[in-house]
Amino acid sequence: MLPLPARMTHHMFLKGQTNPVQRQTRDSVVTFHGTGAGTLVRLSAAIPGLRSSTTHPFDRMLGYPTVFIDCMLRANGHSRARILFTLRLFLLLTALFAAFGGPCAGIVSAQQVRFPARKGGVVNLEAKTQSRKGDVTTADGDVDIQYADTRLRADHVEYNGKTYEAVATGHVHLDYNNEHIDADEAHYNVSTGHGIFHNVRGNVKIERRPNPDVLVTDNPLYFEARDVERFAGDVYLVHRAWITICDPEHPKWQFYAPHARIRLDKTAALINANFRLFRVPLIWLPYATAPAGRRIRQSGFLIPDIGQSSRKGFIVGDAFYWAPTPWMDTTFGAQFMSRRGILERGSFRAKPFENTSIQYTFLGVDDRGLLNSSGIRNPQGGEQQRLEIQSLLPGGWRFVTDYNHLSSLTFRLAFADTFGEAINSEVRSAVFLTNNFRGFSLNLAGLNDKSFLTLPVAATSKTPAIAATSVTLRDLPEARFGSVEQSPWKSAPLYFSFDSFAGAAHRSDSMAATPTFTPVNTPSYVSRTEFAPRVTVPVHFGPWLGVTTSAAFRTTRYGDSLNSAGLVSGVPLLRNTGEFSVDLRPPSLERFFEGSPPKKDRPRRRYKHTIEPAITYRYVTGVNNFADFIRFDADATLTDTNEVQYGFTQRLFLKEEEDQPQELVSWSILQKHFFDPTFGGAIVPCDRSVSPPAPGACVRNVFQALNSITPFAFATGPVHWSPIISDFRITPGGRYDAEQILEYDPNLNKVTAIGTLLKIKPYREFFATVAHFRIQADPILQPLSNQVRTLFGYGNLNRKGFSAAAGISYDLTTNALQNQLAQLSYSGACCGLAVEYRRIALGQVRTENQFRIAFIIANIGTFGNLRHQEKIF
């Protein structure tokens, strides 16, 4: 079982998840010998609760990759750390006092004394004066004890060899690696383990790893504790503890707990803990517990979520985090929305094996609805679920589950957190088991695809209610077996491959029948089988011409079919097709250009321009009953065709010195010509006897031959020419990333589709994204659309200084602003503040204004209702 990343509960004033880190601690044993009787005291240098292993990672807390800080901050960020520091101090005192335990009378005048330790270690003691009287050994004046990486200094040290009581007073300092501790006084009993420490102060300077989810600062961690008392059994009581990473003289924020009880390797309990901003208490917890050892994840309640929304009203909620094992956890909670009802959320995570992960999420709303103008409530509640399972199995097998469920599109539009999630009208699920071996591929799968088409319309005094419409397609079970092109003879350019599948399919149209449309509702299982062997012969005529010819025979059987009225019948359907294609690659044209003479300390540049023509001929025959096939997926859209596709691609490459060439610009232009304009009679012409055509008079002719060049339907009748497709790209993935797609339809004599995407990062932290998409083809085939989206800003939420971002989504066709957002933040050396305004306008379903705020704490996280997944940077 593998540990999961911990989710921090509100015991630690944290909410969210962090990544695990690991650190090994010392486990050496040192031995000190006295100068007289040779009293031997063995002392473990490893503090209980600080041990780790490579198989048990610890969570990153506050951005500090150490077990020490991890344990300390899980106790609300202060108490246990001071104890551990103090333990180091008094364990060293114990070693020193044990060394003094033998008889040694009088005053020692030497300024430095060395005590040998086991395994070659040496304890160095320096003091102005050292003396022994009876059972008490005393060292005074700039006492300095050094052992390995630890250094202890104090004005006065006393040890009673009879009672085992040790006392250190006056400017007590302890330095261990990057840790520094100051204390006024310390009392410790070596025998019983009981100790009292007063006025503990210190800081920790630890290297921090970058974390994109947390504001990171190099400031040390400062802390204070009035009193720390240790009891046998590794139990500690801490009084009046503070912690901050701001300037300790003028801290912007602090954690404070007047009382804390810690049991090492178990739990830490805080009483009356609070978080203070400019010394003003903001968050108070009467009682909280946190892990303090190997059990690094602690169950408990998360930080309450409080917010305000124009459609949901006042929002308040909380969740409970439960981690019963290191490899499994779950979170479940609820929110009360004053205007809507109750919202429930839940998640489950597990990683039982190294190559297996499971994740489940749930969102549901019991909505009482908003009052409309008639005083009637229209509830929009529902639920959505997602289950993800990934596992790498022995023998090269891979298992994946991606199950999604959505009760209604109305629910998603009304309660989705972001605009992008709200407008997604498709719900897809897949379960498959796959294995690739020796050029073969075996896939066992189950697929389900549900597309929501329209929203429900409520009844009025004049019109009846109209139900929502959707189409559900399912392939379950399904087995596919195929092979890549393989040649049985090394000397002959003859390659064989095949594709095959067998399974059951189902289709359900949730819509009413009309005079021009008949919904399809099949039995639960319609059997389907297909086998398609293919032979490929590549031929090269020197380096300037390549010709690849392939031929395939495809046999397909459907258990059910459609009759002449468009209704499902039990008559099986058999289709045998022959397919032939020739791919012709004429010689490419290319030219090299030398860049301008390089400046000093700059690499030499060379450019290469290429023109790559391509011609593909394709012929399919044998599809004589296209209208009888039930449209389950692309396999049912195969038609007869006799076509040629031609085009060219221009590319501009850049090469600097010995680096690999980089593609700067590419521009491709493609078009198809159809010698058979009816595709073997599959085309259904549009009835244009009435202008404009009546609804349903024209159907979308969607064939493989048509949508292989463009995803937009364009054939309203027999067609010879496809649209001309232009795809222009500039430095994909680079500093300036731009793409524009144009479609010109010669049948309509106009540009029918325009798509533009521009992403730039011109200077340091500045960024901008602009996307524009327009469809202006025949409105009978698809509605007109003209939308633009922009997002621009500077910086990000977790960087120091000012950061800002803004974006809009605007529909030019309806002149409607669909989505707008703005976020502004400022982060200093130890904290920051972020505010956000977001508006989502989705017609009558939802128009909502949201105001969010978050307080950012360096090395810890974010407090507020501005959740991480909703950040726009």
In short:
The protein has 873 residues and is mainly beta.
List the defining traits of the structure above.
873 residues; disordered C terminus; elongated; mainly beta; 5 helices; single chain; 26-stranded antiparallel beta barrel; 14-stranded antiparallel sheet
How would you describe the overall organization of this protein?
The protein is mostly beta strands and 873 residues long. The chain has a 26-stranded antiparallel beta barrel. Strands 7, 8, 9, 10, 11, 12, 13, 14, 15, 16, 17, 18, 19 and 20 form a 14-stranded antiparallel beta sheet that branches. The protein has a two-stranded antiparallel sheet with strand order 1-2. α1 (67-73) crosses α2 (79-99). Mean pLDDT is 79; it is low at 1-87, 93-110 and 868-873.
Topology:
Layout: E1 7-8, E2 16-17, E3 20-21, E4 29-33, E5 40-44, E6 58-59, H1 67-73, H2 79-99, E7 106-108, E8 112-116, E9 122-126, E10 129-133, E11 136-147, E12 150-160, E13 165-176, E14 179-189, E15 195-204, E16 221-231, E17 235-244, E18 253-263, E19 266-277, E20 280-292, E21 300-301, E22 305-309, E23 313-325, E24 328-337, E25 341-353, E26 356-367, E27 370-371, E28 377-378, E29 382-392, E30 398-406, H3 409-415, H4 419-422, E31 426-437, E32 440-454, E33 469-486, E34 495-510, E35 526-540, E36 546-558, E37 561-562, E38 568-569, E39 573-585, E40 589-594, E41 605-621, E42 641-656, E43 662-674, H5 704-707, E44 724-730, E45 736-745, E46 750-760, E47 766-775, E48 785-794, E49 801-811, E50 816-827, E51 831-842, E52 846-857, E53 861-864
Antiparallel strand pairs: 1-2, 3-6, 4-5, 7-10, 8-9, 9-11, 10-11, 11-12, 12-13, 13-14, 14-15, 15-16, 16-17, 17-18, 18-19, 19-20, 21-23, 22-23, 22-52, 23-24, 24-25, 25-26, 26-29, 27-28, 29-30, 30-31, 31-32, 32-33, 33-34, 34-35, 35-36, 36-39, 37-38, 39-41, 40-41, 41-42, 42-43, 43-44, 44-45, 45-46, ...
Helix pairs in contact: 1-2
